[in-house]
Amino acid sequence: MACAAYVQDCYYSSQCVPTCCFLTCLSPQDFGMAHLLKWLTEWLLDVRQLLGVTGPEPGVCRTPVRWQRSLREAAPSAPPPALVPGPGRTGGSPGQRPLSPHLGPPRGIHGTHRARAQSATPFSLPGKMPRSFLVKKHWSNRIPNYGQLESQKGASPAGVRAGECGGGGVGGGRCWNFLGNIDGEGKEGEGGCQGSRGPETMAPSGNPPTAPDLCLRADSQLSRPPKINGSRYTCEGLVFPLLLQDRAAPSASNDAPSLWDRKSVIACISLPLPLNGEARGTSSPGPLEISVVDSLDGRAPGAPLKESLNHLNLSPLLNMPKQWPLNPGPEVDKAPDKLLGGGGPQEGSPPLGSVGCFECFDCHKTYHTFSGLSKHRQLHCDLQACRFFSCKYCDKEYSSLGALKMHIRTHTLPCICKICGKAFSRPWLLQGHIRTHTGEKPYACSHCSRAFADRSNLRAHLQTHSDIKKYQCKSCTKTFSRMSLLTRHKEAGSCPAS
DNA sequence: CTGGGGACGGGGCCC
DNA sequence: CGGGCCCCGTCCCCA
């Protein structure tokens, strides 16, 4: 069949670094696979040319089995992906706040109280999630819903949704997997993305890979259905979603029945793009390997922020090529800029629902060819979706770099009290703390003679002057000046209505 | 037990 | 982009 034949002719070679390449198709002829493969081949060649790749042309191929064996031999003991807290840190769970390295003997009260406070993480108690824990977790809401995907396939044959990279086998992948079902736990050579040690561990030849090399691999050797790991989303690269449809499995195939039995098909072609400042052939880590890299190089957790930012999870948008296939296809495919500028049905693509229509799962733009949809998704939807930044110390993610930097300060605690040595994440927190030493209370109550060092405490105090407090018990309508009082009121069973 | 104060943490917003 | 500030929140302690 066309797909298998193509896979057999893919780019496996000793110079070609396979980095998370999957190509598993069902009944490709139903989706214009011939056209897709033609376009993909041209695209790959163009990208190789664009990136100055030298090496064998497509057709020099290794089998996936051999490739996987090579991977295992090259990296027999790759560590599993893990969130590695910085050295000297206590705990690694989300929301668990490490003790400051600058602190002297912990103040017993706050040591206990903080630990207890952090134990009630917002992840375990979403109902009590404080505002301060409202961390944007972009991908957490984007885990593919397989049931939904399957249900939508009929109406939208191109209903391939950007899944998430499984994080690779060694802590952070470098591909985007479309439509889940990729083993997020990232066994090396088995659906994993190029991990943080990919350049070293993934090269079958043992040589440092050249970044632009491309590979396609039929993931037909999967012995078990891949799954999503929802904890890591560090992804990068270029991926093409291949079409899915509920079809019978090809009979003449060596593919695992479990895979073919699935109604969805995996397709992920990843291009390890040269990163900014990353020389070809080097084994320097990509910008995505925040936790692992930092923990490995032993950087002190309290290192200056600017240093820590060297490993920030920058958007893969920065690494996108700006050239596209010269011959993307004879049909209505638009140039990428046009696609970005609103290309879609109004620009020549057939209306939704017409034969051969390819619809973007996210923005519902339709394209006449799959290649058009692919380009649209690479330049538009997926890139927008991947504009997030991950903390190197924990698994929190933010939509802006500034927010991430602010969060990282909660780990590095750069503001240190000169009097007691206590460390704080922000200067104004330190300033407020210093008031506890000086006794300064700049916030005076307008109703009484009391003054406070903390504005929040003044605000809470002002509640005491009000007959109707801010927090009201829904059972007995009694009001309280503080949430904690209301909570205690409920928990103590002192509410007469309860 | 309850109300309140004190100290502190974190994200968002504004400049 | 960074600093300052705002707002919301928590917990502990004490009267």
UniProtKB/TrEMBL annotation:
<keyword id="KW-0238">DNA-binding</keyword>
<feature type="domain" description="C2H2-type">
    <location>
        <begin position="443"/>
        <end position="470"/>
    </location>
</feature>
<dbReference type="Pfam" id="PF00096">
    <property type="entry name" value="zf-C2H2"/>
</dbReference>
<feature type="domain" description="C2H2-type">
    <location>
        <begin position="389"/>
        <end position="412"/>
    </location>
</feature>
<feature type="region of interest" description="Disordered">
    <location>
        <begin position="323"/>
        <end position="347"/>
    </location>
</feature>
<dbReference type="GO" id="GO:0005634">
    <property type="term" value="C:nucleus"/>
</dbReference>
<dbReference type="GO" id="GO:0008270">
    <property type="term" value="F:zinc ion binding"/>
</dbReference>
<dbReference type="GO" id="GO:0000978">
    <property type="term" value="F:RNA polymerase II cis-regulatory region sequence-specific DNA binding"/>
</dbReference>
<dbReference type="InterPro" id="IPR036236">
    <property type="entry name" value="Znf_C2H2_sf"/>
</dbReference>
<keyword id="KW-0677">Repeat</keyword>
<comment type="similarity">
    <text>Belongs to the snail C2H2-type zinc-finger protein family.</text>
</comment>
<feature type="region of interest" description="Disordered">
    <location>
        <begin position="72"/>
        <end position="128"/>
    </location>
</feature>
<feature type="region of interest" description="Disordered">
    <location>
        <begin position="187"/>
        <end position="211"/>
    </location>
</feature>
<protein>
    <submittedName>
        <fullName>Zinc finger protein SNAI3</fullName>
    </submittedName>
</protein>
<dbReference type="GO" id="GO:0000122">
    <property type="term" value="P:negative regulation of transcription by RNA polymerase II"/>
</dbReference>
<feature type="domain" description="C2H2-type">
    <location>
        <begin position="358"/>
        <end position="385"/>
    </location>
</feature>
<keyword id="KW-0539">Nucleus</keyword>
<feature type="domain" description="C2H2-type">
    <location>
        <begin position="415"/>
        <end position="442"/>
    </location>
</feature>
<keyword id="KW-0862">Zinc</keyword>
<dbReference type="InterPro" id="IPR050527">
    <property type="entry name" value="Snail/Krueppel_Znf"/>
</dbReference>
<keyword id="KW-0863">Zinc-finger</keyword>
<dbReference type="InterPro" id="IPR013087">
    <property type="entry name" value="Znf_C2H2_type"/>
</dbReference>
<feature type="domain" description="C2H2-type">
    <location>
        <begin position="471"/>
        <end position="490"/>
    </location>
</feature>
<keyword id="KW-0479">Metal-binding</keyword>
<dbReference type="GO" id="GO:0000981">
    <property type="term" value="F:DNA-binding transcription factor activity, RNA polymerase II-specific"/>
</dbReference>
